[in-house]
Amino acid sequence: MPTQTFLNLNEDKQNQVFNALIKEFSDHRLMDAQVARIIKDCSIARGSFYKYFDDINDSYQYVLKRVLRKVHFDVFAQLKSEPTDSLHAFYVATEFFINKLKDSDYEQFYRQYVLFNQYELKHVEYDYNNLPDDKLILVVDGQKISDMKTIVLTYKWASRAAHQTIRTVLNGGDEKQALSDFANLLKLINRGLVN
User: Fold this and answer.
1) C-alpha R_g of the chain
2) 61: Cβ–Cβ under 8 A, 6 or more apart, which residues?
3) For the whole model, what pTM was predicted?
């Protein structure tokens, strides 16, 4: 994450660096990214870059977190608002994310992340076991599921399917078909939880 030196910069300078980072990481995979192009694009010295970030991976993590704050959707808030079908929250969150990302300044950056960089960073899957009980909500056909293992497993598979749907769309797949397939998969999971 950025150092205090970076955080002390005025907002315009921070945004100048951020924009150069977005450009680099949108045009190049993380493993091919170069500090030389970044510093040239934002007109800073190489030494300044290393005063702001530990390395290029650190700068990438900063950009990723900032982008996700702008385009991500709070699935847990959506889960609380779904009185009869919790899995629908995963669909709503996925569709919202795809639509928000589309034609945004971050679409190509996120495409690079999904297709390449998450693997290069050795992305660790979110552990739903660490969630507080008030966030582990699962309602199917109006019935609350109380078994925590079932809830965690269902969240894992719904999240994986959501990420695969996003990956399919960002990789040029048919968005309508990908979302339809995802909706049908969620219905199958719902049916399996009821029986």
Assistant:
1) 19
2) 1, 121
3) 0.86
